[in-house]
Design goal:
Blueprint (H helix, E strand, L loop, with lengths): L1 H6 L3 H13 L19 H8 L4 H19 L4 H4 L2 H10 L3 H11 L5 H22 L19 H31 L4 H21 L4 E12 L6 H13 L8 E4 L12 H14 L2 E9 L6 E9 L2 E8 L13 H4 L22 E4 L2 E7 L6 H9 L4 E6 L9 H16 L3 E5 L4 E4 L5 E6 L5 E11 L3 H5 L2 H27 L21
Helix pairs in contact: 2-3, 2-4, 3-4, 3-9, 4-6, 4-7, 7-8, 8-9, 8-10, 8-17, 9-10, 9-15, 14-15
């Protein structure tokens, strides 16, 4: 241990260790998908911050660990953003600086059992607030939330139906804190064991008592994934060819991926008629995604458009949450130079104004989202509240085909399904397509990045309201309340210490002696 302390005495070595420690959780996400690693991945980072010689150094450890975390979970953006990704990660990594300071505040030195018990609440709460702030779409959105690493764990999906991905993140961090206390801080092992028992009890309670979706029907939904094809005309022709194969398969809905149509249908009625002909041939409505300059209003939109046998219906959804730098540049007048160093958007896309639930017919209602939007739990929650029977995500990851991004993106749909109790279809132009049932269970095969095919899925329908849909982001509210209580407690403590401190010692005033005066004779 002394050898490690001596090695970390160098600020540069300590900084490098913080960056590496912060990057470790990336292995819990797909592609590696070592979900179990998430429960110990933060331990080295916590140990480093608690050993910091000062609170300021602990804040630096938090910041640099956050930088490492952000670069690791967004490494696939390097081809697009180049060096710019390190600037963004450095800015967002600063969100973890207070978390690092709190680690040292509650776990540094030899903490009392009471301080250890508080750490088990405060540190996960602080982490949740960091995830809340960085989840704002202008800061990159909720990609890489720690709880989303648990997408394939059935008990975790049950917890997601209670408190969403937020509850999973809280519990994952709490387990990491408890493990750190068990292995490194003997004085607080009792509250650590109690925390692990409480986590197991909460998971068991959710498993037994949380309502399960009641399956009350089935639909057949087809996903058309053409793969990487250069040219909008060639891509459309391939999608047309794959869709024709679905004739006679009694499909209720066909879904094409993001940017599957590269022309505005108002300007190209021939394309609209070709899709309508496919609808008549297959006996199914087709949900396409148009990425083009609109003919009826200025600007470029990404729009989900439902097309039936008679042509485009009135059902249209314009993407609301755009990818920073990918689809627009924040403060373009200031940061427009990013287009010269990467693949940032040359022209900002326009935003839609509201979410839309579409009526496909036969009583089936669908709620579309476009690409990046499937990472936001509030969007799928609102669609479920508005009566959507099936959630749909249309995506394309052609730029990132050979990275970890496609698999990680596909995994998010499992959480959105579990949170809402609604099945979710993740259909990609290129990337990984996947379908999940109302409990988040995977249905049928994933269509990998090398696939160019059409696949039909039997999708169970379920109704009812999950606790997460009913109560929303209550774990976040609880975390904010816990931190507010901490702030009040610390404030009162500081005032009491100031009042009880002895006053400054006043030196007694010196008496001035009269100097003897010689009197003359």
């Amino acid at each position: 241990m002394k050898t490690i302390d001596r090695w970390l005495a160098s600020p540069w070595r300590r900084s490098a260790a913080a960056v590496l420690a912060g990057a470790l959780p990336v292995f819990a996400f797909p592609v590696p998908a070592l979900w179990w690693f998430a429960y110990v991945a933060l331990v080295p980072w916590i140990l480093l911050a608690r050993s910091a010689p000062t609170g300021k150094r602990a804040a630096y450890d938090g910041w640099l660990g956050g930088l490492g975390f952000m670069v690791a979970v967004h490494h696939w953006l390097l081809p697009s953003l180049h060096v710019f990704i390190f600037l963004i990660a450095g800015l967002l990594g600063a969100l973890w600086a207070p978390w690092g300071w709190l680690v040292r505040r509650f776990l540094g030195g030899v903490p009392s059992p009471g301080r250890g018990a508080v750490a088990l609440v405060v540190l996960p709460s602080a982490w949740l607030v960091v995830e809340l702030v960085r989840s704002w779409q202008g800061l990159g959105g909720p990609w890489g939330m720690l709880g989303s690493s648990q997408w394939q764990v059935e008990p975790a999906l049950r917890l997601a139906s209670v408190g969403g991905v937020w509850l999973l993140s809280f519990l994952v961090v709490a387990v990491n804190v408890a493990v750190t206390m068990l292995v490194a801080i003997r004085a607080v092992r009792t509250p650590a064991v109690a925390s692990l028992v409480a986590t197991a009890a909460a998971t068991s309670a959710a498993w037994v008592w949380s309502p399960r979706p009641d399956v009350d029907g089935r639909v057949r939904i087809a996903v058309v994934q053409p793969g990487v094809i250069n040219g909008a005309d060639q891509r459309f022709a391939r999608e047309e060819q794959l869709t024709r194969r679905l004739a006679g398969q009694h499909v209720d809905l066909i879904v094409w991926g993001e940017s599957s149509v590269g022309f505005d249908l108002g300007d190209r009625p021939d394309l609209a008629e070709r899709v309508a002909a496919l609808s008549r041939r297959t006996g199914s409505d087709i949900l396409v995604n148009v990425d083009a300059r609109r003919s009826d209003r200025p600007g470029i939109y990404k729009s989900s458009v439902l097309i039936g046998p008679d042509g485009p219906t009135r059902a249209r959804y314009d993407k609301m949450r755009l990818v920073p730098f990918g689809e627009y540049i924040p403060a373009r007048s200031l940061l427009g130079w990013a287009t010269s160093v990467g693949k940032a958007a040359g022209e900002d896309r326009r935003r839609g104004t509201e979410q839309v639930v579409m009526d496909v017919g036969h009583g089936l209602r669908i709620g579309p989202m476009v690409c990046f939007e499937t990472a936001f739990p509030d969007m799928s929650r609102h669609l479920a509240q508005d009566g959507a029977d099936v959630l749909l995500g249309q995506s394309a990851t052609s730029t990132f085909q050979h990275s970890w991004a496609p698999e990680q993106h596909a995994s998010l749909a499992a959480l959105r399904a579990a949170e809402t109790g609604r099945p979710m279809v993740h259909a990609t132009l290129t990337g990984v397509s996947a379908v999940y049932g109302p409990s988040g269970q995977r249905l049928g095969p994933w269509l990998g990045t090398d696939a160019s095919t059409a696949e039909v899925y039997e999708v169970p329908l379920a109704h009812g309201i999950t606790p997460y849909v009913r109560y929303g982001d209550w774990p976040v509210n609880a975390a904010l309340l816990a931190l507010a209580a901490l702030g009040v407690t610390e404030g009162v403590r500081a005032v009491r210490l100031r009042r009880s401190a002895p006053g400054p010692r006043v030196r007694p005033a010196r008496t001035v002696r009269e100097s003897p005066v010689r009197h003359g004779h």
